[in-house]
Every structure is written in structure tokens, then in C-alpha cells.
């Protein structure tokens, strides 16, 4: 699985909004500066997040962006899906829509299992979890395993 720059920027922008929830709307420029994200790229991402129901925008001098829901109610998967589509696909196709034959037949359950595992992690972690540095135990355990940090 590959996390695109677009997904990374979207999650970072959402986390910036989660951290500023009490302060009111944030301007795109402030988010871009705080997270070192190209401003024009961020504008497109924020528009996708607005259309996807994750952020609200407000015009005017006191305008900007804010989360549409509480950070506890937005998973990392929600953000990635809004800007990049399905979490796991094979050649742009969702695993259940694939079929294989012969010795490759058992690839389908492998791709489905991979998708299920990715979903468990990303659907199970909210913006609030990351913003508070309080990741779920399962995620923390995986991250604390030294083998998780190395490439075979």
C-alpha cells in the first residue's frame, strides 16, 4: 500500500484543524504554513474534504476551514477515502470485483485480507487519537515492534 502525498497532506491538514477546533476557523494559508504543504495543492484538498463532508468553509475576514464533526468522529480512513478513494485497490479495482484463475486464484483472498487489515487500522484511529498522541493499543503495539521500522 502506498500513501499518496495528497492523502498525507489531507490527514495533516485535518489534524491541524482538530488541534485548532476551539480557536475557530483556520485559513488555508495558516494550515499550509503550519504543515509545510503547498498552498495551491492544499486548496484542492480542502475543497475535496468540504465536498466529502469532513470540513466546513466560512467566507469573510473571520473565515477559513473547520472540521464538520468532532475529531473523535473522523477516522484517518475517512480522510484518505475522501481525497484518494478506496483504501486498497488492485490496478484501480476493489478486491471483491476481481477474479483470478489457476495458481493465481488464491490472490483474491490475500487482497481482501490486506484490505481488511488496512481498514482495521485506519478506520480504528480517529483524528482525536492522533492529535492527542493516544493511539489505540493495537496500533501502538505494531509501531513499537522494531521489525515494523525496517525494510526486509
UniProtKB/TrEMBL annotation:
Source superkingdom: Bacteria
The protein's name: Rrf2 family transcriptional regulator
MF-aspect GO terms: DNA binding; DNA-binding transcription factor activity
Pfam family, one: Rrf2
Keyword RNA-binding: no
GO cellular component, one term: cytosol
PANTHER family, per database record: HTH-TYPE TRANSCRIPTIONAL REGULATOR ISCR, WINGED HELIX-TURN-HELIX TRANSCRIPTIONAL REGULATOR, RRF2 FAMILY
Xref: Gene3D superfamilies: Winged helix-like DNA-binding domain superfamily/Winged helix DNA-binding domain
Keywords: DNA-binding
